[in-house]
Write a structure and sequence with these properties.
The complex is a heterodimer.
Chain A lengths: L10 H46 L19 H4 L6 H10 L1 H32 L5 H10 L9 H11 L5 H8 L3 H11 L4 H9 L4 H12 L1 H17 L2 H6 L8 H9 L7 H21 L1 H13 L1
Helix pairs in contact in A: 3-14, 4-7, 4-8, 4-11, 4-13, 9-10, 11-15, 13-14, 14-15
Chain B lengths: L1 H47 L16 H8 L4 H31 L6 H14 L2 H11 L6 H8 L15 H26 L3 H9 L4 H12 L1 H16 L3 H5 L15 H11 L4 H26 L1 H7 L1
Helix pairs in contact in B: 3-7, 3-10, 4-7, 7-10, 10-13, 12-13
Chain lengths: 305, 313
């Protein structure tokens, strides 16, 4: 700004000063461009294994382990000619990948719905109702967050068997819906709900259950979607629990399908594994691109609390 | 007349009772599920750890024999625990600094609209199934057809390392995969914490002529201490509970060459479901691991403080 004003000094001096400043600005711009370029390159390098996976899932089996990767042998648009869906056909035909996909969807959807209902109802009581022992019970629930189920694999197996829930999807769904973190997250949100709405409903003679169903649940939509995405990531990707609790082939979820494919020792169908892996990670990535905000909120929410 | 009064009072009493009971009914589904699928599992784990149960055979009470065997086992158990800590430590010292550096870089204004895209590309591996990540990196690390050796060859570095079959490298490979998968997770959280710092602090520092490095060291890091601690503790717990990399990164589900990738949870899984179905023994090992994880979790509560977190929200 100051530069545009006529300066009392001689013109040459002014000219020199502007040149110096423009040079400085230019250097800064170059530095900026360089920094952006370097970061983009690092990001691309970081994503390279994933891009390799995406690319090879459409390649015929003979091209999977090409070195250098097939896509770098010649112009990419020409290598795309060898694209096919052969790997997916093998995964479906030989390993019933579609069944695994449906099982994953069923378990994840069931677990999310049950978690939301059960946790929300409990969180509503802890946040907005008064009853003896409320805080003690709440803190006990918080304490169970320190009981990770995977240290107790053998007891888990035996207990699920004694319930008759071994090798059943419903067993997994019930197990996943005991989210103490979920109750905590929802309660923190419900405590801050506008009390006037609830009081108005009480005056109108609404029962507590109806208040939950008609007021608390709809008002809590943002936090419910955060919890849903948190559960989605956890259940969709979980491996160890279904590994010990699902025996029948037709019940296996996608990660277990992958393990089964991998357990063939001679002539592994790497193409089928890559195709299944592609599907297993595609769903979360698509969801992420659609609901990025909720994913990141869930993350910082989960870490904050 | 009196009977009506009795009825009414009964009726009233009943109503009062119901409204008193109602909140408990609301928490009942959750508490029942919690009791059945979490607490009862732990409870039955107490008995099981003191038996020689094997598979469906309920076994007999053998007192502390399982624990004695574990504690005396310098061949398999303690090395597995040692590896668990080594792996966890390796993850911590690589991921947290890298995540901090990335977050500070991405926080600078020059990226503008590009920031979201860059953040997303570092975050995408977090969304991946750990099994897929492990299998993917196994293919990357193959000696003859893997991309890692190919790339090293392009750079002119030694490219004949047999990564997957070298016992000394097992933990390193796991740390590399973990780094690739989880650094973005920590970065996103640290970035959010960075963006909540009041920018006037930096303006003042800038006016005082503080160098960027000094600003980072004396302003940014102290202000981010709670976030850094939290991310570290989460990362540590994740490391202690790690299973998939040990089990799926190496060929033949053998927990690495010479079982050198065997850490805590894989040890429990191996003894309960892969070798001799020693349920009692595996449960005892689970209790020891649980105590270790509990110690770290308690540290978390002490450092961050549940009560304080509640006040903030």
């Amino acid at each position: 700004m100051a530069l545009s004003k006529p300066a009392p000094e001689r013109e040459t001096r002014l000219f020199g000063l502007t040149r110096k400043i423009t040079a400085k600005i230019k250097a800064k711009k170059i530095r900026r461009g360089l920094a952006i370029g370097v970061m983009c390159f690092i990001a691309l390098f970081y994503l390279a294994p994933l891009l390799w996976l995406f690319d090879t899932s459409f390649r015929p089996k003979v091209e999977i382990f090409n070195v250098p990767p097939r896509i770098l042998q010649g112009p990419p648009w020409e290598t795309f000619r060898s694209y096919s869906l052969e790997s997916f056909k093998v995964a479906i035909g030989r390993y019933q990948m579609h069944q695994g996909f449906l099982n994953s969807v069923l378990v994840t959807a069931g677990a999310i719905i049950l978690t939301l209902l059960v946790c929300s109802l409990a969180a509503y009581a802890f946040a907005l109702l008064k009853f003896p022992g409320r805080d003690v019970i709440f803190y006990c629930i918080l304490a169970t967050m320190m009981l990770p189920i995977t240290t107790m694999l053998a007891p888990l197996f035996k207990v699920m068997q004694s319930y008759g829930l071994y090798n059943k999807h419903i067993g997994l769904i019930l197990l996943y819906s005991t989210s103490a973190f979920g109750v905590f997250l929802l309660r923190q949100y419900y405590v801050r709900l506008p009390i006037s709405l609830i009081e108005a409903a009480v005056v109108d003679g609404a029962s507590k259950f109806r208040i939950w169903w008609w007021i608390v649940l709809p008002l809590g939509k943002p936090v419910l979607s955060t919890l849903a995405i948190y559960q989605f990531r956890y259940v969709w990707n979980d491996f160890l629990v279904p590994l010990i609790l699902l025996r029948s082939k037709n019940l296996h979820t996608l990660p277990i399908k992958l393990q089964v494919m991998d357990s063939i020792t001679i002539a592994k169908d790497y193409d089928a594994m890559i195709a299944t892996g592609f599907i297993a990670i595609l769903i979360p990535i698509v969801f992420f691109l659609l609901f990025q905000r909720h994913f990141l909120e869930g993350l910082s929410g989960s870490l904050k609390e | 007349m009196s009977s009506i009064a009795v009825l009414r009072s009964r009726h009233q009493r009943k109503r009062i009772r119901f409204s008193q009971v109602e909140p408990y009914l609301f928490i009942l589904p959750f508490v029942a599920l919690m009791a059945a699928f979490n607490l009862y599992v732990y409870f039955s784990g107490i008995r099981l750890a003191f038996t020689d149960a094997q598979g469906i055979n309920p076994g007999e009470w053998i007192g502390l024999a399982n624990f004695a065997e574990l504690i005396a086992d310098k061949q398999d158990f303690w090395p597995a625990i040692g590896r668990t800590f080594l792996y966890t430590f390796g993850c911590l010292i690589t991921q947290i600094p890298a995540a901090l550096v990335l977050a500070v870089i991405l926080n600078s204004k020059i990226f503008g609209r590009l920031r979201g895209a860059l953040r997303a590309s570092f975050y995408v591996p977090v969304l991946m199934n750990t099994v897929v990540a492990a299998l993917l990196f196994r293919m990357m690390f193959l000696r003859d057809t893997g991309m890692v050796n190919w790339f090293l060859g392009v750079l002119g570095l030694p490219d004949k390392t047999n990564w997957l079959y070298e016992p000394k490298l097992s933990l390193l490979l796991m740390i590399i995969v973990s780094f690739w998968q989880w650094t973005g997770y920590h970065m996103v959280y640290l970035l959010a914490s960075l963006q909540s710092i009041n920018p006037t602090i930096y303006e003042v520092a800038n006016l005082d002529g503080a160098s960027p490095f000094r600003t980072l060291w004396q302003i940014t890091i102290p202000l981010m201490r709670p976030a850094l601690t939290f991310v570290s503790v989460m990362s540590a717990i994740g490391g202690l509970m790690q299973f998939e990399y040990s089990f799926m990164l190496f060929p033949n589900a053998g927990f690495g060459p010479g079982m050198k990738a065997m850490t805590g949870i894989p040890y429990i899984y191996y003894h309960a479901f892969r070798s001799n179905f020693r349920f009692g023994y595996a449960t005892a090992a689970g209790w020891i691991l649980f105590l270790i994880i509990l110690a770290v979790s308690l540290l978390q509560i002490r450092v961050i403080g549940l009560g304080r977190a509640e006040d903030e929200v």
